[in-house]
Each structure stands twice: as C-alpha cells, then as structure tokens.
Amino acid sequence: MRRNRATPAVRSLVRETALRAEDLIQPLFVCAGDGEPDPVDSMPGVVRHTLESLVEKCRHLEQVGVRAMAIFPCIERSMKNPEGSHAHDSGNVLFSAIREVKEACPSLAIIADVALDPYTDHGHDGLLDVRGEVENDSTVEALTMLAVAQAEAGADIVAPSDMMDGRVKAIRLALDAAGFHRTGILAYAAKYASAYYGPFRDAVKSDNGKSDKLDKRGYQMDPGNVREALHEVQLDEEEGADMVMVKPAGPYLDIIRAVRTHTLLPVAAYQVSGEYAQIHAAARLGWLDYEATRDESLLAIKRAGADMILTYFAAEVAASL
Ligand code: PBG
Fold first, then answer.
1. 210 is a catalytic site residue
2. Phi-psi category of 33—alpha, beta or left, where left has phi over 0 and alpha has psi -120 to 50?
3. N or C: which end of the chain has fewer CB within 10 A?
4. CA neighbours within 13 Å on the CB side: how many for 103?
C-alpha cells in the first residue's frame, strides 16, 4: 500500500476526495445600523455585519471563488415579539441585505433562512399555542409569507430551517403562485436538536439572554435517530425540495452518508457554529493545529457524501485552495 503514498505527486493521483471553493457556502450575519461590524465572542473571526461590511464581504467571496452565501439576520430585542411579526416588515434588515447583495454581487447565490427564531422574543422557530408548544400549521403559514418575501427581495434559494411538517410543499405552492418558479428550496431535512448550535444563538441573539436553554426537541430531530432522517428526506423530496440538508455535519457523518445513498437530490451539510467554535477553542489552547484540523473536518464531510457544505470557514478555506 505504501507505494501509492510515496510522494506528494503520487498521493495526489490517488486522492479520492478534494474540496473545491464551489462546494462551500458562507453563512453570514447581518444587523441593522452603521458603525463597526460587531464580533461574535464565541465564534472568532465571525461578525454581525452592517449592510456595508456585508456587501464588502460578499465581494470578497466572489474573489476567492465561493459561489453562495446563507444570510441570517440579528434583530434588535426591542423589535421582537411572540409572533415574530418583524419578519414580515418589508423594511427589515434581512430584506435590505438581500436586495443590496443581489445588486452588488449578482452572480453570488443568496440562500435565505426561513424560520422565525431571529424575530420571536421566545427564540423558537415558530408561533406558540396556549401551552407554549410550537404550533405547526400557523407557523407554516407565516413561513410561507416569509419565503415569498425573501424571493421577492432577490433570494435565489430559500432554506426552511424550522422543521415544521408540510412546510416545503406549502412554500413551493406559494412561490409558484407568486411567480417565483425559479426560486429553489434547500430543505433543512434532517436537522437535529443539537447542543452545537449554541454560538449561533449567541450570534443572532435568539437565546435572548435567558439562562435556561432553548428546548427545540418538539420539532428538531432526536440525535439518536437515523431512519427518521431518511423519512424526513423522503417527505421533503416528495413535497418539492430541490436540495436537502443534514445538520450538524461533523458529528453526523453517518447521516450524511445514509442520505447520500437514499436520495438522488443534491445533499448539503451544515458545519454548524459549535463545530467551528470547537476547532478555534482547541487551536487557541495550542492543543490542535488550526488549519490542518479545519481542512480535515471539511474533507471528512465531503467524503461522507455532501455535495456542498455550509461552513463559517468558507472564505478562508476557499482562499487557501
Ligand atoms: C434557526 C437556525 C439555527 C441554525 C441555523 N438556523 C439554530 C437553531 O435551530 O436553534 C444553527 C446554525 C449554527 O449553529 O451554525 N432556525
């Protein structure tokens, strides 16, 4: 076996998996207001962008060969309420961001997250019923409106991350009815109720400074389940998803592989905030080699079967390829 490992040249001939800049999707945070971009403490190198710095960052993505970004708004606490009604305010920062990026970087694909958690004061992805549980159908209705508004603003792809039942079909029908036949749906199909989302909730302030942890197990998946992920993928596919996602990525490589085997659709994997924070933290302590660990973590996700990877490392990795 060692003959095929003898030199860098031979190793590169037999290498089965490689990362490309085009595989990577950069998640970005934006908030209203000017001034300096606001660093996210638990995610070194990640900021909450102003509209101006967001556009600058998107120009940089184009330069390093990243073809897509996923945009998440960080909403001021005073604008949040139980219904998340600011999500539907045409003047909110998300819609401005989509419009400005589309205008400045028309060839960059914009993926807009469809969920209410940035806008609700309780931090859940949907509307609550009298018992405080997230109500499925009224939430789907609100998400459908949000997705159409995102398409109107210029999103190329909408990505429901809420895990409600039936939302993909409802969004597809609404997009078509509004004339957005070309707007794609990237379904967060297998999204687990994961502890790895902690730094993200800090970034979009959806934990709302509360000390008790947000419990999303009533709609996000149980980390112990595999078959259920395939069931979710099958349903989203039947409902009209154009691409399906597994999230988180690194701790769920078996799920990525299983989904890759079961669907013909493109498969995305989301290397989430906690995966990013982990690598940074260990590197900062001097316990892991930063770049080598970062690159290996992404290669492993690709090898498991992901066609594309949402990762906070996107720009810097693309620049290094
Ligand atoms: C919310 C959403 C979350 C992420 C993306 N969209 C967090 C959650 O479900 O609480 C997590 C992304 C990350 O951790 O990087 N709809």
1. no
2. left
3. N
4. 10
- Across the range 190-207, mean pLDDT stands at 90
* Residues 145, 88 contacting (CB under 8 angstroms): yes
CATH code for residues 17-320: 3.20.20.70
Q: How far apart are CA 270 and CA 163, in angstroms?
A: 15
In whole angstroms, give the CA distance from residue 121 to residue 294. 34
Average pLDDT over residues 283-290: 98
Place of tokens 């112990």: 224
Mean pLDDT of 293-311: 98
Residues β-bridged to residue 157: 111, 184
205 annotated active-site:
no
Residue 27 preceded by cis peptide, ω within 30: no
Q: What is the DSSP annotation of 86-111?
A: GGG-TTSHHHHHHHHHHHH-TTSEEE
Alpha carbons within 13 A on the beta-carbon side of 57: 26
With 80 as the cut, is the pLDDT of residue 210 above it? no
- The radius of gyration of the chain from alpha carbons, rounded to an integer in Å, stands at 19
| Most informative mutation of 29, 75, 127, 197 for ligand 1 (most atoms within 8 A of CB) | 197
> Is the pLDDT assigned to residue 50 strictly greater than 80?
yes
Q: At CA 13, angle to CA 11 and CA 18, rounded to 5?
A: 85
What value does the mean pLDDT of the chain take? 96
Q: Where are the domains of the chain?
A: 17-320
- What pLDDT band is residue 208 in, cutting at 50, 70 and 90? low
Cβ–Cβ under 8 Å, residues 29 and 203? yes
| Ligand 1 atom nearest to 27, measured from its CA | 15
Query: What integer pLDDT is reported at residue 204 of this predicted model?
Result: 85
Predicted local distance difference test score (pLDDT) of residue 218: 94
User: Ligand 1: distance of its center to the CA of 182 in Å?
Assistant: 25
The Cα 8–Cα 258 span in angstroms is: 32
In this structure, the residue with its CA closest to atom 8 of ligand 1 is: 197
Q: Whole-structure pTM over 0.85, yes or no? A: yes
